[in-house]
Amino acid sequence: MVVHHYLVLLQLMILLVWPIKASKDLCQYDCGNVTISYPFGIGDGCYFDNSFEVFCDYSSGSPKAFLASINNLQVLDSHVYTVYDSSTSFYVYMIRVYIPVISLKISNLTSSDKGVSLSGSPFTFSRSRNRFTAIGCNNYSTIIKRQNDSSVFGGCLSIITCDPALNPGCYDFLCAFPQNITEVFNAQISNFYSKSIPLECHSVSIVEDYWITSGYLKNPHVLKDHEQVPALLEWLEYKGYCYEEYNSKTTCNKDNRCLIQLSSGYLCICFRETSFDRHHHGYCSGCNSGLGMLFLLIGIWWLCKFVKRRRETKLKQKFFKRNGGLLLQQQSSSNEGNTEKTKLFTSMELEMATDNFNTNRILGQGGQGTVYKGMLTDGRIAAVKKSKLVDESNIEQFINEVVILTQINHRNVVKLFGCCLETEVPLLVYEFIPNGTLYQYIHDQTEEFSITWEMRLRIAVEVSSALSYLHSTTSIPIYHRDIKSANILLDDKFRAKVSDFGASRSVTIDQTHLTTRVQGTFGYLDPEYFGSSQFTEKSDVYSFGVVLVELLTGQKPILSTDTEEDKSLAGVIFSPRANEKRETIFSLRKPKEGKRIIYRGYGLQKGCLNFEGEEEDFLGKKYHLEFRGD
């Protein structure tokens, strides 16, 4: 439902930006090689008002642009040229158009009527960028308002005396631009005195200064060769900031500059990196549409991020439920007061700790999963166990490990820091034990280092201490159910730490056994448990006895022999040859070292491995005391 609301919001944001883009996309931007820029435009709704209307004429073959409101002047360039006028400290804006060249008629020596009137438009002739130019000897060129009008605004008189017989050709002369020529240009040309001057040499026009000066150097008769020449029209003289002078008279937004008053109102000029809004007259849309697009992109990015985060949240909730999070909460609440709460790590915390579960961080892999080394945010070094995918039948087993380890606080049991259940596979965070497993030191010994018999005895004492704690000291007895040398870790001082409680179960005090499907490692399994599926604390003691045999003999629980009875290391202990070949069974690297310990241990491990179900002389606590006695 929330996502639906944000999708509606996104659609509204798109609609806010779309009219600006759509209105521009419907307009024609060029005519031939001329680019049409707003406030000029082709077609309804594409220009500011009628003064800026441009039509594209295709009749001559190649498209040509014309100003519809001013004698159909051909537009050469409708870009807005911004020129700083130092005399007024304002910016002026200009476009380039074609102006007709006025010349004498052949018949009556009067000028042709090709005048240009800018009256009623926002345009004026640029006095600083144009030249009033005439050619020919003995020309008297005057600027008038209209044909046969006696009002003269200015003119030029050529007093050059020239004899066509001696100096054939035309002679240009540049005139000063009259100050009062702003809206109207027309001219009348006559001879100053009668001479046989070619009529084509009697011409006059307003010409772009740069065009006439650059062209004059190449051709002094440049004007006579053209019927029309380029000139610059100024438009929109700057008046000041809208909100300063025209706050009540114009719709210009306050960040724009207000310009001259047109018939339809004030027009605005936009600052840099903004452009005119074709959809809303008087407003700059470049900035608005740019911000609109920016907000739209930010909105899309934020919405995508929101949807992604929400999807991840739902996925984490799904994983949390699938990985037994609800069961963990239920067990934690039922045991409240007796146990400390398990810390729940986030997936991001553990990804950072393990460098996104880099393969270089792998400490080991086993049946329960993969273990990675990592550093937590508080600086502690941890072992992050990434369990394999579990189905519903294994969820209880996994949560059981979490709950049990949370209850345990013993120096010879691996400490659980917390867990993470919001990932695809559940994660357990243990204290990091640096020196590997007891199995490695027993069966993969190197010449550089091997565990001494004193160390073996101490490890046996520490493991028995851990078992005694699990069976008798905790508020609820805990059965490990998978005691083996590979599940006994050694810290930096080679102290034993019992680990991997994946198969552990806790039982009430009045229970004497636990009936489950058989779990454990072959070679360490109690035969009675294997046959009856009834696990007791004595089953852990049996497995501990196998570990003792490993410590004393250096042999693996499963032997590579030809006879079936000698397959199990525990079976060898009870074979008829055990007492006779005791010296050969125990592989001593130093035969004289610790014989008393060896034989004492032999008796204890044999007791662990050979007991009746009802006997109580072989509990882990007793072995712990007997070892301590040595």
TrEMBL record:
<dbReference type="Pfam" id="PF13947">
    <property type="entry name" value="GUB_WAK_bind"/>
</dbReference>
<dbReference type="InterPro" id="IPR008271">
    <property type="entry name" value="Ser/Thr_kinase_AS"/>
</dbReference>
<keyword id="KW-0067">ATP-binding</keyword>
<keyword id="KW-0732">Signal</keyword>
<keyword id="KW-0597">Phosphoprotein</keyword>
<feature type="signal peptide">
    <location>
        <begin position="1"/>
        <end position="22"/>
    </location>
</feature>
<dbReference type="GO" id="GO:0007166">
    <property type="term" value="P:cell surface receptor signaling pathway"/>
</dbReference>
<dbReference type="GO" id="GO:0030247">
    <property type="term" value="F:polysaccharide binding"/>
</dbReference>
<dbReference type="GO" id="GO:0005886">
    <property type="term" value="C:plasma membrane"/>
</dbReference>
<dbReference type="InterPro" id="IPR000719">
    <property type="entry name" value="Prot_kinase_dom"/>
</dbReference>
<keyword id="KW-0723">Serine/threonine-protein kinase</keyword>
<feature type="domain" description="Protein kinase">
    <location>
        <begin position="357"/>
        <end position="619"/>
    </location>
</feature>
<protein>
    <recommendedName>
        <fullName>Protein kinase domain-containing protein</fullName>
    </recommendedName>
</protein>
<keyword id="KW-0472">Membrane</keyword>
<dbReference type="InterPro" id="IPR025287">
    <property type="entry name" value="WAK_GUB"/>
</dbReference>
<keyword id="KW-1133">Transmembrane helix</keyword>
<dbReference type="GO" id="GO:0004674">
    <property type="term" value="F:protein serine/threonine kinase activity"/>
</dbReference>
<keyword id="KW-0812">Transmembrane</keyword>
<keyword id="KW-0325">Glycoprotein</keyword>
<dbReference type="InterPro" id="IPR045274">
    <property type="entry name" value="WAK-like"/>
</dbReference>
<dbReference type="GO" id="GO:0005524">
    <property type="term" value="F:ATP binding"/>
</dbReference>
<dbReference type="InterPro" id="IPR011009">
    <property type="entry name" value="Kinase-like_dom_sf"/>
</dbReference>
<dbReference type="Pfam" id="PF00069">
    <property type="entry name" value="Pkinase"/>
</dbReference>
<keyword id="KW-0547">Nucleotide-binding</keyword>
<keyword id="KW-1015">Disulfide bond</keyword>
<keyword id="KW-0418">Kinase</keyword>
<keyword id="KW-0808">Transferase</keyword>
